[in-house]
Amino acid sequence: MEKTDVDRLRALDRQHMWYPWTPMAEWMARDQLVVERADGCWLIDADGKRYLDGRSSMGMNLHGHGRTELVEALVAQARKAGETTLYRVSHPAAVELAARLAAMAPPGLQRVFFAESGSTAVETALKAAYAYWVAKGQPQRSTFVSMAGGYHGETLGTISLRGENGEQVDMIRKTYEPLLFSSLSFHQPNCYRCPAGQSSDTDCALECTESLEDILTREKDRIAAVIVEPRVQALAGVITAPAGHLAKVAEITRRHGVLLIADEVLTGWARTGTTFSCDAEGVTPDLMTVGKALTGGYLPLSATLATEQVFEAFQESVFLSGSTYSGYALGAAVALASLDLFEKEDVPARANALADVLATELEPFRALTHVGDVRQLGLIAGVELVADRETRTPYPPQERVVDRICTLARDNGVLVNAVPGDVITMLPSPSMTHDDLRFLTGTLYRAIREVTGE
Ligand SMILES: Cc1ncc(COP(=O)(O)O)c(C=O)c1O
């Protein structure tokens, strides 16, 4: 792109754009990164500079950019019909995709309700869970229980899941508090800062789940569902649960007769090793959400899967939910092509091989003076920075240490994210080459050393 064109774009950007989750004054004060093209796992900016996308466009990129199979599926569907809407009309791509999702999901999740984003898929799950209890004659079950710190989306419903009794009532909940419904949260399985006061993994008898047991014992007749990000909370700072945690949560939830919602929007599609994270512990939730990489990141599409037991409660009623674009044909056609690639190229095997490389590459980070903890589940990894390793004391927020590290990594050609809690997160695509992954970790390692003065 010519320099004058880039300057013009940046001027228009400053005048008209409003970015998600972005401090706009700061954004406008610097030269915005304008991504013009992409190739595999690399983003190429308007000046021709290349950046390795260590965050897979927030978990969307599954097969790499520029995959002709996905482009051809999109064009072929667009030639047949761009959209039809699922409002009392069916079309082949959505039906095929529903059947395919049901076949791939944990056994028992047979019904598929389509939406457009992860947030709307979770919102759908919340409404389905509540409406289920209404249909069962228990409308007092209107409270949801989530895991503290979890992220389930940006809508008012999903923000409401940031339980007001949690140990991490944060800025998002505080900002919108008067608009939200009440919810409860139980301890997150944070082994680095164990909420149950255990000192190491070896002492762990999953005491952190006792807070869920307590809530359900006390409140069970008014609880609609428990919602979790299965086995890892990415945006909470890559909180990886000890083995057996998900199965235990599922057992407690079932024993109290409450519905379980697994939010697989980020963890799905082999990001944690198995196709869905629930698969690793043999858990079938009552409702499960998928999104992000469902179309390989090429189009926005998401889905809420339900068991027949949940679905059957709606036989005498109508599920009052859905939007114009629910299950639109283009998205469904590209998702089918993406699932073909998923199977043909054995994405789970590829993700596991890459995750092994990542584990090896992350090992040296543990020796850095200001790295408190390194956490990883499959292709979700986080490095927690601390001012003092001995006492696990965080840096003063005004030092903005992780922001500075991410900016330096970006200047050196690698995109990674900072999340609250001074954690740098990596979400490499399973399609990334092993050499590219080493470039990612090497660049990040050097950036941490430079910014922390090691
Ligand atoms: C676990 C989880 N659920 C839901 C969402 C929301 O998805 P979306 O941003 O597509 O609305 C996210 C987004 O990061 C997520 O990580």
Automatic annotation (TrEMBL):
Q: Which domain of life is it from?
A: Bacteria
Q: Fetch the Pfam families from UniProt.
A: Aminotran_3
Q: Which UniProt keywords are present, listed alphabetically? A: Aminotransferase, Pyridoxal phosphate, S-adenosyl-L-methionine, Transferase
- Which SUPFAM superfamilies does the record cross-reference, listed alphabetically? PLP-dependent transferases
What stretch or stretches form a coiled coil here? Answer: none
Q: Name one GO molecular function term.
A: adenosylmethionine-8-amino-7-oxononanoate transaminase activity
- EC code: 2.6.1.62
Output the PANTHER family linked to this UniProt entry: AMINOTRANSFERASE (PTHR43094), AMINOTRANSFERASE CLASS-III (PTHR43094:SF1)
Give the protein family. Belongs to the class-III pyridoxal-phosphate-dependent aminotransferase family.
Q: What is the name of this protein?
A: Adenosylmethionine--8-amino-7-oxononanoate transaminase
Give the lineage: Bacteria, Bacillati, Actinomycetota, Actinomycetes, Kitasatosporales
User: Per UniProt, what is the name of the gene that codes for the protein in this document?
Assistant: bioA
